[in-house]
Amino acid sequence: MILFDVYPLNDITIVNGQGSYIWDDAGNKYLDFYGGHAVISIGHTHPHYVKRIKEQLDKIGFYSNSIKIPLQQQLANKLGEMSGKEDYQLFLCNSGAEANENAMKLASFHTGRKKIVAFSKAFHGRTSLAVAATDNLQIVAPVNETENVKFLPFNDEVALQNYFAIHAKEIAAVIVEGIQGVGGINVATPGFLQTIRALCDEHNAVYIADSVQCGYGRSGKFFSHDYAAVNADIYTMAKGMGNGFPVGGIIIAPHIKPAYGMLGTTFGGNHLACAAALAVLEVMEDEALLANALSVGNYLQEQLKGIAQLKNVRGRGLMIGFDVPDEYKNLRKNLLWKYRIFTGEAKPDVIRLLPALNIQYKEADMLIDAISNALANYS
Ligand SMILES: Cc1ncc(COP(=O)(O)O)c(C=O)c1O
């Protein structure tokens, strides 16, 4: 049997990881500013994380949601405490797409309405409604096409107000990333998020904060939506939540009430996933990783802004993007193959930085030196 060939691969086989470094099967060491697509939050093979998962595996790895799993409540308590959303309710699932799918479905159950408002350049995942709310026709299969999703321009308060003025009674939810990731690191303005909050309040629609990539401390605040001082009705999360263990979730404001059977999943919230997610939060707290994300992130942005060839450096915390002019278009490849540094991309010309939240100034300097060096060699 061969693998279904859907991923364009780098010819590299990673076999080990520690902190912000990974090693390939030939013993080459790489600096990881990509975090396996914003997933590695507390660093590779963090000792506390490894220990907690191993200990849990020795007890029990999985049982279904037909019995009590106290680890789920422990996770809910810790998440409530660290995010400041103590009165929210937690539903656990397995991925970012599943989190968004459940959030939109729940909004529809809650309001009895069908329309979802999403925005230009949004990415919400590849399952049916999540992909329908993703602004990329190439990944929407005919069966996923729906008239229930309306795309409006990102950060355009007037367009949103105008749409609500006509369709308010049909709108179940507005779904928005606090910082668009796949779309190229586009930061939602506080005014835009506040407008979403106000319109959803006025018309009883549900504000869904897709925090799958920009959440969980990556921006330097627990949720990037916190920068706008608004509370969403549902926050979706995944990526950094399990530091590589597949776990996702949604937290739901108290006014949205559950009913048996409304949502469900076989694997979501299993013992091992909860142990992984708890370990992540414990490390984030013990090592003050939100503060680190903010300070190292700010430093990185300052340094990047000092490199004349890079344009439009932007982002928050350790979610940073910049445009690479056409004449330097191989920069990302050069960083990987010549300097052994992994970075992310957003097509056509954006480099995305999504390192672990405990990356240090030393590693930031290594990246800056490598970029400066690589750019100097173009002339
Ligand atoms: C903002 C956002 N939402 C949802 C998803 C989908 O997550 P997953 O790939 O875990 O389904 C992603 C993945 O990149 C994302 O960036």
Helix fraction by DSSP (H/I, runs of at least 4): 25-40%
Query: What structural class is derived from the secondary structure elements?
Result: alpha/beta
Strand order of the largest sheet: 4-12-11-10-7-5-6
The quaternary organization reads as single chain
* Average pLDDT figure: 98
Largest sheet: 7 strands, mixed
Classify the fold: give the CATH topology of the largest domain.
Aspartate Aminotransferase, domain 2
Summed up, the domain count is: 2
What is the CATH homologous superfamily assignment of the largest domain? Type I PLP-dependent aspartate aminotransferase-like (Major domain)
Topology order in helix (H) and strand (E) letters: EEEHHHEHEHEHEEEHEEEHHEEHEEEH
Tell me, briefly, the overall form.
globular
Radius of gyration: 21 Å
Q: Distance between termini?
A: 47 Å
How many DSSP-defined strands?
17
Q: Bound compounds, please?
A: pyridoxal-5'-phosphate
| The CATH class of the largest domain | Alpha Beta
The appropriate CATH architecture of the largest domain is: 3-Layer(aba) Sandwich
Strand proportion = 15-25%
Summarize the structure.
The protein is of the alpha/beta class and 379 residues long. 35% of the residues lie in helices and 19% in strands. The protein has 2 domains: 51-286, 3-Layer(aba) Sandwich (Aspartate Aminotransferase, domain 2); 289-352, Aspartate Aminotransferase, domain 1.
Reconstruct the topology from this structure:
Blueprint: E1 14-18, E2 21-24, E3 29-32, H1 35-38, H2 47-59, H3 70-83, E4 89-93, H4 96-111, E5 115-119, H5 128-132, E6 149-152, H6 157-167, E7 171-177, E8 179-180, E9 186-187, H7 190-203, E10 206-210, E11 234-237, E12 248-252, H8 271-286, H9 289-305, E13 311-316, E14 319-323, H10 331-337, E15 341-342, E16 344-346, E17 350-353, H11 361-376
Helix pairs in contact: 2-8, 3-8, 6-7, 9-11
Bound molecules: pyridoxal-5'-phosphate (PLP).
Residues 95-97, 100, 123-125, 177, 181-182, 210, 212-213, 238 line the site of pyridoxal-5'-phosphate.
